[in-house]
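Data availability (excerpt). The following record was deposited with the supplementary files.
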Amino acid sequence: LENLLKYSDNIDVYTRLAEIKKINKIRFAEYIKGTTNISVNIDSIFDVQAKRLHEYKRQLLNALHILYLYEMLKENPNMPFQPRTFIFSAKAAPGYHMAKRIIRLICCIANEVNRDKIIGDKLKAVFLEDYRVTLAEIMMPAAEISEQISLAGTEASGTGNMKLMINGAITLGTLDGANVEISEAVGDDNILIFGLRANEVEAMKQNGYYPSNYYNNPIISRLIERLISGISGVSFEDIASSLIGQNGRGDPYMVLADFDSYRQIQEEAALRYSNPNRWNKMSLINIASAGRFSSDKAISEYSNWIWKIDKLNDIK
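Predicted structure:
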């Protein structure tokens, strides 16, 4: 795969890579239309977060940001804006009430955003049911941003980020799990990193984390109030309370602490996407650098370092 790096300044290769991505986006858009009846803008950024639904993976952070973009566009529909389609797919454990509430929040945001004719194709949100391998096979080749936004220090590794990387999606995430290795492989210019580092998270926990302090941020306070007042006719006061907490405590996965940093890295992503050659070069470098996550490499390292067994060649 690293041999692809010799084409990292080749405009013709960028163009062909973009053509392939567009074909995959069209195929995925047809799947979305067929399963949800939602039409998405092929020329928008396909921003994907597909993984188990859990508070530490912070689908809630992504959802709040979509709500923020929606509120901005409603106030100023003619503002410069890179069109985006946010795609979620996830399953929640049967007894995990908060995870199910977050799914409902995402669906309610999608219902409100997607029906707003003033917003049109500038912003769409989609929740795809029944996440599985056959869906991933359509989704991952079409993805352009790979959301890997768990709180630093909580993700053991992650493998979806590797599959998205080899399909040319740019990782937007924290320095957590395999994102650390992806960052080392592609370099700082070819990944979108935001948020607290693991040592900063630990320090905040030790010193006492007070999410209510972030309520002074007018953007955050407005989003919290919006959760309470209701989205598509449903109040999410329970989610708001989990963020602010009683007596100023709550937000165990520091969604509010990382919100501003996340918002800023999303702005940077939109800026980079507006330069197709830059974006396609980033994509090519990600594909070319994905070899370190090969399962063959992993088995070889386990054999050498852990199992300490020899390789058998030419077995007959």
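Summary of structural features: Residues 134 and 308 are 36 Å apart (CA to CA).
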